[in-house]
């Protein structure tokens, strides 16, 4: 099962390449922010995004992100599998 998982942007790495570093449950990985960081909307450090296969798919408010993380934790194995995929992913 592939899930979108909320993560908090902890660093904008390269605005030209649209790369940021996000943290999900203690795991930090580079993500592509091209779908949500553009002329109509921008991301800043501290913003929450929904991440799927290394891409920020949408911006979330903190309450929605935390509620989603709580619901995902209840899924158990599917949530742990998604975290493992995030741990092993690389976007450079």
Notes on the protein architecture:
The protein has a single domain (5-88), classed as SH3 type barrels, CATH 2.30.30.140. The protein has two helices and five strands; from the N terminus they run βββββαα. The protein has helices at residues 62-75, 77-88; strands at 5-14, 19-24, 27-32, 48-52, 55-60. Strand 1 (5-14) and strand 2 (19-24) form a beta hairpin. Helix 1 (62-75) packs across helix 2 (77-88). The radius of gyration is 12 Å and the shape is globular.
Furnish the topology, listing elements before pairings:
Elements: E1 5-14, E2 19-24, E3 27-32, E4 48-52, E5 55-60, H1 62-75, H2 77-88
Antiparallel strand pairs: 1-2, 1-4, 2-3, 4-5
Helix pairs in contact: 1-2
Tell me, rounded to a whole number, the average pLDDT.
86
The CATH first-level class comes to: Mainly Beta
Strand tally? 5
Helix content: 25-40%
User: Strand pairing plus helix content: what structural class?
Assistant: alpha+beta
Cα distance spanning the termini: 25 Å
- Helix and strand run: EEEEEHH
- The count of helical stretches stands at 2
* CATH domain topology: SH3 type barrels
CATH architecture classification name = Roll
Query: What is the domain total for the residues?
Result: 1
GO molecular function: carbon dioxide binding; iron ion binding
Organism: Rubrobacter tropicus
Family: Belongs to the HupF/HypC family.
Pfam families: HupF_HypC
């Amino acid at each position: 099962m592939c899930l979108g998982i909320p993560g908090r942007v902890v660093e904008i790495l390269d605005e030209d390449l649209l790369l940021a570093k996000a943290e999900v449950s203690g795991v930090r990985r580079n993500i592509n922010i091209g779908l949500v960081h553009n002329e109509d909307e921008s991301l800043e450090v501290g913003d929450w995004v929904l991440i799927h296969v290394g891409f920020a798919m949408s911006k979330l408010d903190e309450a929605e992100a935390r509620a989603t993380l709580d619901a995902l934790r209840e899924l158990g194995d599917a949530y742990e599998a998604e975290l493992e995929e995030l741990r092993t992913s690389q976007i450079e």
